[in-house]
Design brief:
CATH architecture of the largest domain in chain A: 3-Layer(aba) Sandwich
Number of helices of chain B: 11
Radius of gyration of chain B: 27 Å
Number of helices of chain A: 12
Radius of gyration of chain A: 23 Å
Strand order of the largest sheet of chain A: 10-9-11-8-12
Structural class of chain B: alpha+beta
Largest sheet of chain A: 5 strands, mixed
Strand order of the largest sheet of chain B: 1-2-3-8
Shape of chain B: globular
CATH superfamily of the largest domain in chain B: MetI-like
CATH class of the largest domain in chain B: Mainly Alpha
Structural class of chain A: alpha/beta
Strand content of chain A: 15-25%
Shape of chain A: globular
Largest sheet of chain B: 4 strands, antiparallel
Number of strands of chain A: 14
Order of helices and strands of chain A: HHEEEHEHEHEEEEHEHEHEEEHHHH
Largest interface: A-B, 49 and 43 residues
Oligomer: heterodimer
Number of strands of chain B: 8
Chain lengths: 346, 383
């Protein structure tokens, strides 16, 4: 009896494996997230509650920023319209739960890529759209010009639920400085408390400091110290377990960066179809069958470039022209002295 | 037999339904977590937390475990709740009695206070006290000393720390005073029952609680000195106070808003309780020759308390639960430290949220049990 049971079990298991295999290869063409997104008609994107340059809503509710543009690029690729995005503002604390529970499909919210986040909590980071590092902001009048002038008893305002909290501890411990961490749930409250004089310094990613400085009652009274105390590669995140969707988001971002590398802009994308360079022709859909790999048509990348623009255009529009960080620093192309380097689209 | 079955079936259906619903949610969560590669377990509690907390009643830093961080948050929640409950009760009783005062000004002022504070959302009040009132406080270097030793600044309230010599002698003198008072009270009650004589217990108690500790200073070798906070410069315009004890502004703002808000509800409970006692009771008590104080203490209050306690218990529970709004202004309570930072760093949402919920449940039930016990104690004892 038991013998038969054993055989039966293995048979069932084999059938199950076979069945999974066949359904898997079908799903490769159309992932569950992709199918749901196309059915709904919009991309569900998690963003910050307001970080100028990255994701920020204006009075009319229009979202702009380089994190927003990643979601718009995916919408352009998948749905054909960069405006078909539903943005969900999330606090640092809520963001991962919102993604893993299926409330959103892309988390594009200045999120640092770390080993434990990638490996532990059911998330997959797909790339980096901004290379950042943690820094400190102080009042100019304090006379502090370097973190080496920090003394015991300094109070530091920051957000909870971020890598910042951990880096801050590492930094102050390594310097042997006793400090008072004052951690708020929302960025606006951190800024308000620091601005009121509750804390001597405000610490977060340097891009965040530059962006939040614009919100202070008098931005000129504050400076960002030159030291960078951590690596903060920020990028979009997707749920673990849908590799096709993961690829779509990764290559939507890569397309924007590679388009800049080849000089393809929203203005000249159509003309580039007749280019002599096969790499350019592939990017604008005039050669090869790149979209088929994730079940999309061949114009997916052309739509991204035409509707959202390349990475350089997005950076200029959102971060440089708004006066947040005019200098691209490490976020320049590798060909121009930066570290933006993406695998080739072929 | 038929009758019993009719009774049992609805209960069976209810139990099955509850089990099925819970089973479904557990199963669903399990499947979803498995699909997303999240594993379930409480093992993280013993891992190093690697984040610091601003304010803690026990020794803690990032090298301690997540469980220790949980305790830090829990103790901070209990601290703010206990202080809040004490202040709210005192204030509530005063305002509640004031609302019944024949004095027009006191009466109307109390009524205004109640209507004003109970009709504004608590979160808004917390923001007001923290952000609006805080901004008005001076920077440490500009702070004027209160009584020469207290400093109220934007970075917190700095008070002198006590430095004790022979603290144990002082402590025992207080314990001795309390024990003596209890013995005298029992004795006084017996004397009154047997001989009808009244001993001024209250005055004796006050005397004892002051004289015994005083003696411990004079002959017990107890000494006390103060460590007064001293201004320290961190940078050109950045100062703090060192030495003494510092109370973070987050704690002050939170306690203040919680007590002011809850006191309005307690005041209404107190007013309802006193008004709930029949007018005839007061008149009858006066007619047998009791003084107004005795009327209040012996006749009105014992009856009013029975009406006051149950709704006041609700207010205590509300205050405890409302303390979780602390996260908005960076007071490191259970929600901020554990359900906030720890949840983020570990990603263990289900585990941490369930522990936090269970903790609040336990806290609330403890308060409830305590108050129910007190309520039973003061209830009419039928003989």
């Amino acid at each position: 009896m038991f013998k038969y049971l054993k055989q039966l079990t293995s048979l069932v298991a084999m059938v199950a494996v076979l069945f999974t295999f066949t359904t898997e290869s079908m799903a490769a063409k159309k992932s569950k997230t992709l199918k749901n997104t196309q059915k709904k008609g919009f991309v569900r994107c998690g963003v910050s509650q307001g970080l100028p340059g990255f994701s920020n809503a204006d009075a009319a509710g229009n979202w702009t920023g380089i994190d927003v543009d990643v979601c718009r690029a995916v919408a352009a690729a998948v749905l054909g319209d960069a405006n078909k995005v539903k943005f969900t503002p999330l606090s640092a604390k809520e963001r991962f739960t919102a993604l893993t529970s299926g409330e959103i499909d892309i988390l594009s919210r200045n999120t640092t890529w770390t080993l434990s986040r990638d490996a532990d909590i059911g998330l997959t980071f797909v790339g980096v759209n901004f290379y950042d590092g943690q820094g400190f902001m102080v009042r100019k009048s304090s006379g502090i010009t370097s973190t080496s002038q920090f003394k015991d008893g300094i109070s530091a305002c920051t957000n909870i639920g971020t890598t910042t909290e951990l880096n801050m501890r590492d930094f102050f411990n390594s310097k042997g400085i006793k400090y008072e961490p004052v951690a708020f749930e929302k960025a606006d409250e951190v800024v308000a408390a620091y601005d009121a004089g509750r804390c001597d310094t405000y610490t977060t990613d340097k891009s965040g400091l530059a962006a939040q400085r614009t919100k202070m009652s008098n931005p000129d009274e504050h400076i960002v110290l030159p030291e960078t105390v951590s690596k903060e590669p920020l990028g979009p995140v997707v749920r673990q377990g849908d590799s096709v969707w993961e690829d779509i988001v990764r290559w939507s971002l890569n397309t924007m960066i590679e388009a800049e590398e080849y000089g393809i802009t929203s203005a000249n994308a159509d003309m580039m179809k007749t280019s002599d360079n096969p790499a350019i022709k592939r990017l604008v859909g005039a050669e090869g069958e790149l979209g088929a790999a994730f079940g999309l048509d061949n114009d997916w990348s052309l739509r991204i470039i035409k509707q959202v623009g390349n990475y350089g255009e997005s950076y200029k529009r959102n971060i440089a022209d708004t006066g947040i960080l005019p200098d691209r620093g490490p976020n320049e192309l590798w060909t121009k002295g930066g570290i933006l380097y993406v695998p080739p689209a072929r | 037999m038929n009758f019993k079955l009719k009774d049992i079936i609805p209960q069976l259906i209810t139990v099955t339904a509850v089990v099925l619903v819970f089973g479904f949610f557990t199963y669903n969560a399990q499947i979803n977590m498995e699909n997303r590669g999240i594993d379930f377990g409480y093992g993280f509690l013993s891992q190093e937390s690697s984040f610091d907390v601003q304010f803690s009643l026990i020794e803690y830093d990032g090298s301690h475990s997540y469980f220790r961080a949980y305790l830090v948050g829990l103790l901070n929640t209990i601290l703010v709740s206990v202080i809040g409950i004490i202040i709210a009760t005192i204030l509530g009783v005063i305002v509640g009695v004031a609302r019944l005062s024949p004095n027009y000004l006191i009466n109307k002022f109390a009524a205004f206070y109640v209507e004003f504070f109970r009709n504004i959302p608590l979160l808004l009040q917390i923001f007001f006290w923290y952000f609006a009132a805080l901004r008005a406080l001076p920077l440490p270097q500009d702070a004027e000393a209160i009584f020469g030793v207290f400093f109220l600044t934007i970075k917190g309230l700095y008070v002198p720390a006590f430095i004790w010599q022979n603290f144990s002698v002082f402590f025992y003198s207080i314990v001795a005073a309390i024990i003596t008072i209890i013995i005298i009270r029992i004795h006084a009650k017996r004397v009154q029952e047997n001989q009808g004589k009244q001993i001024p217990v209250f005055l004796i108690s006050i005397g004892l609680i002051f004289i015994l500790p005083l003696l411990s200073f004079l002959i017990g070798g107890v000494g006390i000195s103060f460590e007064v906070p001293v201004l320290k410069q961190l940078a050109t315009t950045s100062f703090i106070y060192e030495g003494g004890v510092s109370l973070p502004p987050e704690l002050i703002a939170l306690t203040l808003s919680l007590s002011l808000y809850t006191a309005t509800f307690i005041a209404e409970c107190v007013r309802a309780g006193i008004q709930g006692v029949g007018k005839g009771q007061k008149e009858a008590a006066a007619s047998i020759g009791l003084t107004p104080n005795q009327v209040l203490k012996l006749v009105i209050m014992p009856q009013a308390l029975r009406i006051i306690i149950p709704p006041t218990t609700n207010q205590y529970l509300n205050l405890t639960k409302n303390s979780s709004l602390a996260a908005a202004i960076a007071y490191p309570d259970l929600v901020l430290v554990f359900a906030g930072t720890a949840l983020m760093q570990t990603g263990k949402a289900i585990e941490i949220v369930s522990i936090t919920m269970f903790t609040y449940l336990t806290l609330s039930i403890s308060i409830s049990l305590l108050m129910n016990w007190y309520n039973k104690k003061i209830a009419i004892q039928e003989k």
